[in-house]
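We emphasize that the prediction below concerns an isolated chain of 241 residues; any contacts that depend on oligomerization or on bound cofactors are therefore not represented. The input was used exactly as deposited, without trimming of termini.
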Amino acid sequence: MGQWFYAEGNRERRGPLPGENLVELFRSGRIALDTLVWREGMDQWQPLRAFAGELGLTDPPPAELPVAPSSAPAGPPPLQATPAPANVNIATPKRGLSGCAIAGIIAAVVGVVLVALVGVLAAIAVPAYQGYTLRAKTAAAYAGMVPLKAQISTFAAEHQRCPVNDDAGFGAPESYAQAGIGSIRIGRFDNGHCGLEALLQVPDEVQLQGKAIWLDYDPGSGQWHCSAEVDDKYLPHECRG
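Result of the prediction step, given as a C-alpha coordinate string:
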Protein backbone atom coordinates (compact mmCIF):
# COMPACT_ATOMS: atom_id res chain seq x y z
CA MET A 1 0.00 0.00 0.00
CA GLY A 2 3.04 2.33 0.16
CA GLN A 3 4.19 4.70 2.91
CA TRP A 4 1.57 7.06 4.35
CA PHE A 5 1.53 10.25 6.41
CA TYR A 6 -1.46 11.43 8.45
CA ALA A 7 -2.31 14.73 10.17
CA GLU A 8 -3.07 14.05 13.83
CA GLY A 9 -5.97 16.29 14.78
CA ASN A 10 -5.54 17.68 11.21
CA ARG A 11 -2.73 19.74 12.72
CA GLU A 12 0.44 17.67 13.41
CA ARG A 13 1.97 15.51 10.67
CA ARG A 14 2.80 11.87 11.58
CA GLY A 15 4.58 9.19 9.53
CA PRO A 16 5.76 7.66 7.34
CA LEU A 17 4.07 4.33 8.09
CA PRO A 18 2.74 1.37 6.03
CA GLY A 19 -0.87 1.27 4.96
CA GLU A 20 -1.49 -1.65 7.35
CA ASN A 21 -0.52 0.56 10.30
CA LEU A 22 -2.82 3.30 9.02
CA VAL A 23 -5.69 0.77 8.99
CA GLU A 24 -4.86 -0.28 12.58
CA LEU A 25 -4.90 3.35 13.73
CA PHE A 26 -8.33 3.75 12.17
CA ARG A 27 -9.73 0.57 13.70
CA SER A 28 -8.41 1.57 17.14
CA GLY A 29 -10.15 4.95 16.89
CA ARG A 30 -6.91 6.98 16.81
CA ILE A 31 -7.86 8.48 13.44
CA ALA A 32 -11.19 8.95 11.61
CA LEU A 33 -12.51 9.10 8.06
CA ASP A 34 -12.08 12.89 8.04
CA THR A 35 -8.40 12.68 9.08
CA LEU A 36 -6.13 14.15 6.39
CA VAL A 37 -3.65 11.68 4.81
CA TRP A 38 -0.94 11.81 2.12
CA ARG A 39 1.46 9.51 0.27
CA GLU A 40 3.97 9.98 -2.52
CA GLY A 41 2.34 10.82 -5.82
CA MET A 42 -0.56 12.83 -4.31
CA ASP A 43 -0.81 16.56 -5.09
CA GLN A 44 -2.30 17.47 -1.73
CA TRP A 45 -3.63 16.07 1.56
CA GLN A 46 -7.01 14.33 1.33
CA PRO A 47 -9.43 12.89 3.90
CA LEU A 48 -9.00 9.21 4.71
CA ARG A 49 -12.49 8.42 3.41
CA ALA A 50 -11.20 8.97 -0.14
CA PHE A 51 -9.14 5.76 0.27
CA ALA A 52 -11.64 3.72 2.32
CA GLY A 53 -12.24 1.27 -0.52
CA GLU A 54 -8.54 0.87 -1.28
CA LEU A 55 -7.65 0.26 2.39
CA GLY A 56 -10.80 -1.74 3.27
CA LEU A 57 -11.95 0.55 6.07
CA THR A 58 -15.14 0.47 8.11
CA ASP A 59 -16.32 2.82 10.89
CA PRO A 60 -14.14 2.31 14.02
CA PRO A 61 -15.58 1.65 17.52
CA PRO A 62 -16.17 4.80 19.60
CA ALA A 63 -13.14 5.88 21.62
CA GLU A 64 -12.30 8.78 23.87
CA LEU A 65 -10.06 11.32 22.19
CA PRO A 66 -7.49 13.44 24.04
CA VAL A 67 -8.63 16.97 24.68
CA ALA A 68 -6.38 19.68 23.31
CA PRO A 69 -5.50 22.53 25.71
CA SER A 70 -8.03 25.34 25.41
CA SER A 71 -5.74 28.21 26.28
CA ALA A 72 -2.81 29.68 24.42
CA PRO A 73 0.70 29.14 25.87
CA ALA A 74 2.03 31.89 28.06
CA GLY A 75 3.90 34.61 26.23
CA PRO A 76 7.06 36.49 27.33
CA PRO A 77 6.84 38.68 30.45
CA PRO A 78 5.74 42.26 29.83
CA LEU A 79 8.40 44.87 29.29
CA GLN A 80 9.39 46.80 32.42
CA ALA A 81 8.49 50.45 32.44
CA THR A 82 11.40 52.85 31.95
CA PRO A 83 12.23 54.55 35.28
CA ALA A 84 11.43 58.23 35.51
CA PRO A 85 14.41 60.58 35.42
CA ALA A 86 15.86 61.72 38.71
CA ASN A 87 15.04 65.22 39.90
CA VAL A 88 17.40 67.83 38.54
CA ASN A 89 18.71 70.35 41.02
CA ILE A 90 18.99 73.85 39.56
CA ALA A 91 22.05 75.55 40.93
CA THR A 92 21.58 78.98 42.40
CA PRO A 93 23.66 81.52 40.48
CA LYS A 94 26.60 82.83 42.48
CA ARG A 95 26.82 86.51 43.20
CA GLY A 96 28.75 88.30 40.57
CA LEU A 97 27.82 86.12 37.57
CA SER A 98 26.93 88.07 34.48
CA GLY A 99 23.50 87.94 32.87
CA CYS A 100 24.91 85.82 29.99
CA ALA A 101 26.35 83.26 32.42
CA ILE A 102 23.05 82.93 34.29
CA ALA A 103 21.16 82.54 31.04
CA GLY A 104 23.59 79.83 29.91
CA ILE A 105 23.15 77.86 33.14
CA ILE A 106 19.35 78.03 32.91
CA ALA A 107 19.42 77.01 29.25
CA ALA A 108 21.65 74.01 30.05
CA VAL A 109 19.40 72.84 32.89
CA VAL A 110 16.24 73.27 30.82
CA GLY A 111 17.89 71.32 27.98
CA VAL A 112 18.71 68.41 30.30
CA VAL A 113 15.14 68.33 31.61
CA LEU A 114 13.67 68.43 28.10
CA VAL A 115 15.91 65.61 26.89
CA ALA A 116 14.90 63.49 29.89
CA LEU A 117 11.21 64.18 29.31
CA VAL A 118 11.48 63.32 25.62
CA GLY A 119 13.16 60.02 26.53
CA VAL A 120 10.41 59.13 29.01
CA LEU A 121 7.65 60.00 26.54
CA ALA A 122 9.33 57.93 23.82
CA ALA A 123 9.70 54.96 26.19
CA ILE A 124 5.95 55.10 26.87
CA ALA A 125 4.62 56.01 23.44
CA VAL A 126 6.63 53.61 21.23
CA PRO A 127 5.64 50.35 23.03
CA ALA A 128 2.03 51.58 23.27
CA TYR A 129 1.91 52.20 19.53
CA GLN A 130 3.52 48.83 18.77
CA GLY A 131 0.97 47.07 20.98
CA TYR A 132 -1.89 48.87 19.24
CA THR A 133 -0.51 47.84 15.83
CA LEU A 134 -0.24 44.17 16.83
CA ARG A 135 -3.75 44.13 18.29
CA ALA A 136 -5.11 45.68 15.09
CA LYS A 137 -3.48 42.95 12.97
CA THR A 138 -4.77 40.06 15.10
CA ALA A 139 -8.24 41.64 15.16
CA ALA A 140 -8.22 41.81 11.34
CA ALA A 141 -7.15 38.14 11.13
CA TYR A 142 -9.89 37.09 13.57
CA ALA A 143 -12.48 39.01 11.55
CA GLY A 144 -11.38 37.04 8.47
CA MET A 145 -12.03 33.75 10.31
CA VAL A 146 -15.48 34.57 11.73
CA PRO A 147 -17.48 34.11 8.46
CA LEU A 148 -16.48 30.42 8.39
CA LYS A 149 -18.13 29.69 11.76
CA ALA A 150 -21.69 29.54 10.39
CA GLN A 151 -20.56 27.47 7.39
CA ILE A 152 -18.81 24.91 9.62
CA SER A 153 -21.66 24.60 12.15
CA THR A 154 -24.25 24.20 9.36
CA PHE A 155 -22.19 21.50 7.63
CA ALA A 156 -21.68 19.60 10.93
CA ALA A 157 -25.45 19.66 11.62
CA GLU A 158 -26.36 18.44 8.13
CA HIS A 159 -23.66 15.76 7.71
CA GLN A 160 -23.08 14.72 11.32
CA ARG A 161 -19.34 15.15 10.92
CA CYS A 162 -16.74 17.88 10.76
CA PRO A 163 -15.99 19.43 7.37
CA VAL A 164 -12.48 19.51 5.91
CA ASN A 165 -10.90 21.75 3.31
CA ASP A 166 -11.72 19.40 0.42
CA ASP A 167 -15.46 19.20 1.18
CA ALA A 168 -18.00 20.98 -1.03
CA GLY A 169 -18.16 24.66 -0.20
CA PHE A 170 -14.72 24.74 1.42
CA GLY A 171 -11.51 25.78 -0.33
CA ALA A 172 -7.89 24.71 0.06
CA PRO A 173 -6.03 26.13 3.10
CA GLU A 174 -4.12 28.65 0.97
CA SER A 175 -7.31 29.88 -0.72
CA TYR A 176 -8.23 31.66 2.52
CA ALA A 177 -5.05 33.75 2.54
CA GLN A 178 -5.78 37.42 3.21
CA ALA A 179 -4.39 40.35 5.16
CA GLY A 180 -2.56 38.85 8.13
CA ILE A 181 -3.50 35.22 7.33
CA GLY A 182 -1.35 32.79 5.33
CA SER A 183 -3.75 29.81 5.38
CA ILE A 184 -6.78 28.34 7.17
CA ARG A 185 -7.14 24.59 7.80
CA ILE A 186 -10.61 23.22 8.48
CA GLY A 187 -11.19 19.88 10.20
CA ARG A 188 -11.55 18.07 13.51
CA PHE A 189 -9.55 18.72 16.70
CA ASP A 190 -8.19 15.95 18.96
CA ASN A 191 -11.10 16.49 21.36
CA GLY A 192 -13.61 15.60 18.62
CA HIS A 193 -14.73 19.19 18.10
CA CYS A 194 -14.88 20.78 14.66
CA GLY A 195 -13.17 24.04 13.82
CA LEU A 196 -10.39 25.81 12.03
CA GLU A 197 -6.76 26.84 12.44
CA ALA A 198 -5.50 30.10 10.93
CA LEU A 199 -1.75 30.66 10.57
CA LEU A 200 -0.80 34.32 10.81
CA GLN A 201 1.30 35.80 8.01
CA VAL A 202 2.92 38.97 9.37
CA PRO A 203 6.61 38.75 8.37
CA ASP A 204 7.61 42.04 10.01
CA GLU A 205 6.15 41.14 13.45
CA VAL A 206 7.98 38.32 15.23
CA GLN A 207 5.28 38.24 17.94
CA LEU A 208 2.69 37.15 15.32
CA GLN A 209 4.51 35.56 12.36
CA GLY A 210 3.62 31.87 11.94
CA LYS A 211 1.51 31.77 15.12
CA ALA A 212 -1.87 29.97 15.10
CA ILE A 213 -5.35 31.13 16.10
CA TRP A 214 -7.91 28.35 16.67
CA LEU A 215 -11.71 28.47 16.59
CA ASP A 216 -13.10 25.32 18.25
CA TYR A 217 -16.77 24.35 17.74
CA ASP A 218 -18.57 21.90 20.05
CA PRO A 219 -21.51 20.42 18.04
CA GLY A 220 -23.10 19.17 21.25
CA SER A 221 -23.43 22.58 22.92
CA GLY A 222 -23.26 24.71 19.81
CA GLN A 223 -20.57 26.83 21.50
CA TRP A 224 -17.42 28.28 19.90
CA HIS A 225 -14.15 28.82 21.73
CA CYS A 226 -11.18 30.88 20.53
CA SER A 227 -7.55 30.26 21.58
CA ALA A 228 -4.16 31.17 20.14
CA GLU A 229 -0.39 30.91 20.37
CA VAL A 230 -0.22 34.72 20.51
CA ASP A 231 0.26 36.61 23.79
CA ASP A 232 -3.14 37.58 25.26
CA LYS A 233 -2.36 41.30 25.24
CA TYR A 234 -2.27 41.28 21.43
CA LEU A 235 -5.50 39.26 20.96
CA PRO A 236 -9.14 40.31 20.56
CA HIS A 237 -11.11 39.96 23.81
CA GLU A 238 -12.94 36.91 22.38
CA CYS A 239 -9.65 34.96 22.23
CA ARG A 240 -8.09 35.90 25.58
CA GLY A 241 -7.74 33.56 28.51
